[in-house]
Each structure stands twice: as structure tokens, then as C-alpha cells.
Amino acid sequence: MSENEKFDEIEEKNEESIETQSDEYAKIIEKLQAENNELKNNFLRAHADMENLRKRSAAEIEKRSKFAISDFARQLLPVADNLTRALNAFKIDEKEHKPETIKNLIQGILLTQKELDGVLEKNGVRKISALGKIFDPNFHQVVQEKEDKSVPVGTVLEEWQTGYTIGDRVLREAMVVVAKGGPKPEKESSENISKDNIDTKV
N or C: which end of the chain has fewer CB within 10 A? Predict the structure, then answer.
């Protein structure tokens, strides 16, 4: 075999070796790329899961913080009821005709009620507006019906007990007397009804 033939043979073998190595490198690179993509996808999924967990945790903390005082606020409501009953018993609209001691007592009850209302409002507890509104089972509890054809059916005529909300939850429904025998009420969107039933002032 001549020198040229030997050289050609060696060169051919080198080319085959290079091609083989190139194929192997290509497979290794392809494998590494696949592993890299998998790791990237795993990272993105883990990051998304952590972000969702963070959001859920933040929402849960906010929710618990917002409604943590619900039980305490619910226990305070009878105090507010008793203050209202006391004022009603004194017939506050006639207080100018009462003795000075009674006037001072009424004034003291009014101040106490105002302070309690302020504390409730500060903690997100608001009165449910009922009088004159159309009955809403989400906010009102009917205790009696009265014949009244001058107003639409279901209009709240009297409020026996004030209702309250805390945040977007009903803490206690308002106990109401509603009208019957009148015309049908006009339809209104549930969103407007809900907003209309929350008193902006406690």
C-alpha cells in the first residue's frame, strides 16, 4: 500500500471518528437541553406554586384578621340593643319636658351609644339599613307582616332589631316587619340591593 493510500485511509478513519464523535456530542447536547428544559419547567411550576401559596396565605391572613373580632362584635350587639331600648323607653323626642336628672341620663346613654357605634364602625361593623327598603333575605328576617297598600309588597315598615355586617359578611340579620297587600316592587339588581342595604354610618 502506497503512502498516499495509507494517508487516505487514515484520513477516512479520522473523518468517521469525527462524525461518530459529532453524533455522540449531538446526542449529549440534545440530552442536556432536554434536561435543562425539564429543570426550567420544574422551576417555573415550583415558582408558580409558591406564588399561589403566597397569595392564598396572604388572603387567608387578611380574612382571619378581618373577621377575627366577629365573635366579640356579636357579643357587643346586645349592648347596643339595650342602649337603644333604654332611649326608646325614655321617649327621647320628649326629653325637653323631663326633669334635669333624666335629661342628663338620656344624654349619657346617647354618648355611650355614639361611642359604641364608633368602635363598631372602626372595626368594620356596620348597621344594615332596613326601614323603607324592600325585604332582602340576605339581610332581613321577617317577624311580622302588616297590611299596607300604600307601599310595595315586602317594604320594611318597622325594624324590631338592628342588623349588622362585618366586611362582606352578615353578622346578624335585621328583624323586620314588612308590608303586604300593596303593588309588586320594581325589580332591582342584586348588587344594587346589597349596596343599598349597608348603612355607611353605624
Answer: N
